[in-house]
Amino acid sequence: MKRLSLLVLGVVLAFGVGGCAKRQNTQPTPNGGQVVSDGTTTNKVGSDGTTPGRSLPLPGVSLSTSASDAGTSLATVYFAYDSSEIASQYNDAINSAARRLTQSGSMRLRLEGNTDERGAAEYNIALGERRAQTVKRALVLAGAPESQLLTVSYGAERPAVEGHDESAWSKNRRVDVVALGGTP
Predict the structure, then answer these.
(1) CATH 3.30.43.10 given to domain 67-180
(2) What's the rounded Cα separation, in Å, for the pair 164 and 104?
(3) Which helix (H) or strand (E) holds 154?
(4) Calculated CA dihedral for residues 137, 80, 95, 97, nearest 10 degrees
(5) What one-character-per-residue DSSP string does 72-128 give?
(6) Least-confidence region, from 9-13, 45-49, 85-89, 145-149
(7) φ and ψ at residue 18, rounded to 5 degrees
(8) Neighbours of 26 (CB within 10 A)
(9) Where are the domains of the chain?
């Protein structure tokens, strides 16, 4: 009986000690990842092994005059991975959109923030909103009336390009500047 009790105790201890993972103390990082107590980091955004904030080549400005039921696309501003900072190459497009808005008193602009597919849905909605707000601030600084600017974030819900590689992701990290009403 004593032998059976020791055997049961040994099994319980084996599962109790060896079967449980060591709990690690984690702290959030500004980019949505975590710093684990052992010094390693995890990253919600960029689970493909890339690092947030790394420099990526940005595609050129895309100006379009194609009309749709939702409005006319005036410009597209692309962003680096996990960033809401506007590259200087978009200054002309932003100034042009601001001029068009001030010349047409009835026109409004909808700034549609988008992200690539990586990251949690909540994080992508917030990042898309930060991108749209950054473009809004740039337009206001260029002379656009704030009352004629609307922002919306679609997160990763409206990709411009389907795909699961950097080529597609770089086209999906964007703010579309869409004219609503009035003459663009």
Answers:
(1) no
(2) 40
(3) strand 149-155
(4) -90
(5) EEEEEEE--TT--PPPGGGHHHHHHHHHHHHH-TT-EEEEEEE--S-S-HHHHHHHH
(6) 45-49
(7) -80, -25
(8) 15
(9) 67-180
